[in-house]
Amino acid sequence: MPLQGPQRRLLGSLNSTLPATPYLGLTTNQTEPPCLEVSIPDGLFLSLGLVSLVENVLVVTAIAKNRNLHSPMYYFICCLAVSDLLVSMSNVLEMAILLLLEAGVLATRASVLQQLDNVIDVLICGSMVSSLCFLGGIAVDRYISIFYALRYHSIMMLPRVWRAIAAIWVVSVLSSTLFIAYYNHTAVLLCLVTFFVAMLVLMAVLYVHMLARACQHARGIARLHKRQHPIHQGFGLKGAATLTILLGVFFLCWGPFFLHLSLLILCPQHPTCGCVFKNFKLFLTLILCSAIVDPLIYAFRSQELRKTLQEVLLCSW
């Protein structure tokens, strides 16, 4: 880069074991083993970010427009879309600034660049934390709707839901600010990894329990109508496929990033771990892919939301 501005703190420092290593790569060493480094073109990274931006803006617009979608489940989906939107926007903004700096188009003082860097880092980290929280919130909402159906509206009252949403946003902003301020402490990485594992376990336990209940319900219906066993098997396979998609996408998109964090704790100087560190941009790209896939899984499967989205698009023409 023509301008040696301040490095990214949390996310930038995670790209290397050395604080002074630039964001877009690691220094090579002749004694290091050959590594598989996946190169992500800047144009592809920006394109994915823009697709995610448009997609999540449409989700937020559709939910805001249709009063029939003003329910706890859709509020969580809307907040997830906002979080994914912020993830995409902050990453696209940072990439655009880096490209402008490299091209010599953007010239600014180091102090201004430092403040901008801090703001973007807090935005990226906070939006990631909130995205994970709202994914967990959606799982909890669905669990309550199945296992406490008769009490659902008394449990998921709108004031209570709004307080939970506000708490998630506040905690996300405060925690991301602390993470950026103390980015070079191992405790920060431990907290992030622990948080991811907790969300993964929470979602796995809730969705597996929901699948078991659904299969049990299907068996009861089959016995009631004296149907054959293959019908129940087909339902179980469909439920297992849905569960695999939900947890698989979550793990594949977020897992590599948190594996990166775990290796920074366990083996920051090991050559093999260094090969993983070189693919940091790939891991951020997978998170952008998660922001693209989330609306397809949680929002666009709703017929009511798709209908509203069609109206929004038709009105815009």
UniProtKB/TrEMBL annotation:
Key word Iron present: no
Parts of the chain that traverse the membrane: 44-63, 75-99, 119-140, 161-181, 187-214, 235-259, 279-300
Subcellular location: Cell membrane
Protein name, as recorded: Melanocyte-stimulating hormone receptor
Topology within the bilayer: Multi-pass membrane protein
First-listed, main subcellular location of the protein, grouped into a coarse class: membrane
Pfam families: 7tm_1
Subunit structure as annotated in this protein's UniProt entry: Interacts with MGRN1, but does not undergo MGRN1-mediated ubiquitination; this interaction competes with GNAS-binding and thus inhibits agonist-induced cAMP production. Interacts with OPN3; the interaction results in a decrease in MC1R-mediated cAMP signaling and ultimately a decrease in melanin production in melanocytes.
Keyword field: Cell membrane, G-protein coupled receptor, Glycoprotein, Membrane, Receptor, Transducer, Transmembrane, Transmembrane helix
GO annotations of cellular component type: plasma membrane
Lineage: Eukaryota, Metazoa, Chordata, Craniata, Vertebrata
Span of domain G-protein coupled receptors family 1 profile: 55-298
SUPFAM superfamilies: Family A G protein-coupled receptor-like
Assigned protein family: Belongs to the G-protein coupled receptor 1 family.
Role noted for this protein: Receptor for MSH (alpha, beta and gamma) and ACTH. The activity of this receptor is mediated by G proteins which activate adenylate cyclase.
Gene Ontology BP term (one): melanin biosynthetic process
GO molecular function per UniProt: melanocyte-stimulating hormone receptor activity; ubiquitin protein ligase binding
